[in-house]
């Protein structure tokens, strides 16, 4: 077994909100051509069929307002652009955003992306560790159903923001862990009581055992009591705190992206600052879905998860059989056992791989449990711990100052 896997005791997942790969990391292609980002020549037609080019003009806040539509019908337009015959071409983003304000100039902002130096934390982690060219949201739809794939390996047929119903025999990765023999530890760390977890289905079971606040995560890192699997949620809303206003850190438009950068750094620092924890932990930073923001890579087909959504449920007049993925999102694997500058090829590159949110419970299950009752999608999902390939632990991990 590689030294990194031999030392691994903890898997931590931080899932942020609603940003596409090209929007956040596309500018890195100019620094490293192996990264499947933007050349600067990518375009989308506006409502007058005028080509709108990508521009490195993304701002931290007050730009993507209103929130771009990322419900199933809108994402279908973004991917297929109402093409006939129906072809996935990623040409409908500007038209989709235009539908919200009917403002042609404003709709062009959906093509804006960040310069790498504006996202110093995310860009540094991507260059220092492993960045995935081919990590996709699990379905072309919104938050709740995509996060369900990270927790259950399926959304049980759900494609909307409605609360999903758990259907046997599939259980969450947390239940699998704590009910296993021998028993394993797992926890969801939500930010605080005012920004409670989106994993609401499990709130009624095992609450003291499976749930903790972000403050507890920091404490668990400091005292070496972090569970074997941890899933971290950011702060989803601005709200009052004991010492003043607390700013949303999820990066969901139109929340402040720089506050999300600070939050990512705080998670990384909490792990890195404990030498024994840093040596034994793999951290995945990933986004739940693209938030309606432009990405140029066509989502690939995938193994169906055994459920289907009716034409009425999708809002498109077409049934969805969960046989293709949603839009690509940023994903970075952080570990001192990952070679610096690792770029994991995507599905359209020779020798490339496809990852999605079902890869999360698939990886945790494979490493800690060996196997469990899982959806067909999760059984086929690629896992990512093989990226911990170094024989000697790195000592050059970047340091981020607390802000």
Task: Provide an overview of this structure.
The protein has 403 residues and is α/β, with parallel strands linked by helices. The chain has a single domain, classed as Alkaline Phosphatase, subunit A, CATH 3.40.720. Helices cover 28% and strands 13% of the residues. The chain has 15 helices and 14 strands. It has helices spanning 3-7, 21-25, 72-80, 93-101, 104-107, 120-128, 143-152, 173-179, 207-210, 214-223, 257-272, 275-279, 311-314, 359-369, 376-380, and strands spanning 10-16, 43-45, 51-53, 130-132, 135-136, 186-190, 211-213, 229-232, 239-241, 244-246, 281-287, 331-334, 342-344, 355-356. Strands 7-6-8-1-11-12-4-13 form an eight-stranded mixed β-sheet, with helices on both faces.
Radius of gyration, CA atoms, in whole angstroms: 20 Å
CATH class reads: Alpha Beta
Could you say which structural class the secondary elements and strand pairing correspond to? alpha/beta
Proportion of helical residues: 25-40%
Q: Which stretches are poorly predicted, pLDDT < 50 over at least 5 residues?
A: none
Number of strands: 14
Strand content: 5-15%
Please describe the structure with a list of short key phrases separated by commas or semicolons.
13% strand, alpha/beta, 15 helices, Alkaline Phosphatase, subunit A, 14 strands
Summarize the SSE layout with pairings.
Elements: H1 3-7, E1 10-16, H2 21-25, E2 43-45, E3 51-53, H3 72-80, H4 93-101, H5 104-107, H6 120-128, E4 130-132, E5 135-136, H7 143-152, H8 173-179, E6 186-190, H9 207-210, E7 211-213, H10 214-223, E8 229-232, E9 239-241, E10 244-246, H11 257-272, H12 275-279, E11 281-287, H13 311-314, E12 331-334, E13 342-344, E14 355-356, H14 359-369, H15 376-380
Parallel strand pairs: 1-8, 1-11, 4-13, 5-14, 6-7, 6-8
Antiparallel strand pairs: 2-3, 4-12, 9-10, 11-12
Helix pairs in contact: 3-4
């Amino acid at each position: 077994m590689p030294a990194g896997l031999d030392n691994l005791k903890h898997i931590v997942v931080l899932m942020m909100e609603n940003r596409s790969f090209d929007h956040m990391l596309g500018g890195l292609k100019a620094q490293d051509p192996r990264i499947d980002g933007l050349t600067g020549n990518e375009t989308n037609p506006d409502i007058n069929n005028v080509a709108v080019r990508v521009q490195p003009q993304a701002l931290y806040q007050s730009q993507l307002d209103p929130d771009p539509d990322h419900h199933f019908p809108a994402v279908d337009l973004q991917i297929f652009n109402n093409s006939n015959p129906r072809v996935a071409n990623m040409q409908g983003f500007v038209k989709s955003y235009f539908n919200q304000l009917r403002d042609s100039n404003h709709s062009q902002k959906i093509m804006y992306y960040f310069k790498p130096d504006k996202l110093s934390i995310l860009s540094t982690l991507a260059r220092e560790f492993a960045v995935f060219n081919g990590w996709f949201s699990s379905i072309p739809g919104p938050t709740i159903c995509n996060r369900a794939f990270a927790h259950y390996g399926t959304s049980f047929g759900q494609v909307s923001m409605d609360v999903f119903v758990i259907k046997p025999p599939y259980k969450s990765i947390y239940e699998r862990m704590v009910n296993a023999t021998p028993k394993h530890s797992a926890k969801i760390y939500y930010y605080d009581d005012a920004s409670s977890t989106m994993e609401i289905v499990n709130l009624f079971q095992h609450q003291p055992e499976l749930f903790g606040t972000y403050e507890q995560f920091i404490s668990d890192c400091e005292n070496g009591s972090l569970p074997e699997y941890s899933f971290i949620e950011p702060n989803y809303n601005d709200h009052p705190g004991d010492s003043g206003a607390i700013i949303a850190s999820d990066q969901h438009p139109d929340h402040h992206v720089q506050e999300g950068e600070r939050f990512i750094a705080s998670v990384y620092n909490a792990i890195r600052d404990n030498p024994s924890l840093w040596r034994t932990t793999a951290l995945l930073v990933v986004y739940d879905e693209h938030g309606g923001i432009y990405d140029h890579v066509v989502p690939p087909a995938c193994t169906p998860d055994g459920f289907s959504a009716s034409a009425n449920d999708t809002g498109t007049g077409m049934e969805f059989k969960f046989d293709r993925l949603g839009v690509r999102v940023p994903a970075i694997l952080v570990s001192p056992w990952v070679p610096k500058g690792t770029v994991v090829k995507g599905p359209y590159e020779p020798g490339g791989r496809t990852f999605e949110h079902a890869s999360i419970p698939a990886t945790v299950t494979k490493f800690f449990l060996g196997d469990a009752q899982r959806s067909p999608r999760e059984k086929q999902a690629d896992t990512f711990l093989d990226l911990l390939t170094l024989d000697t632990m790195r000592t050059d991990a970047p340091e981020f100052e607390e802000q």
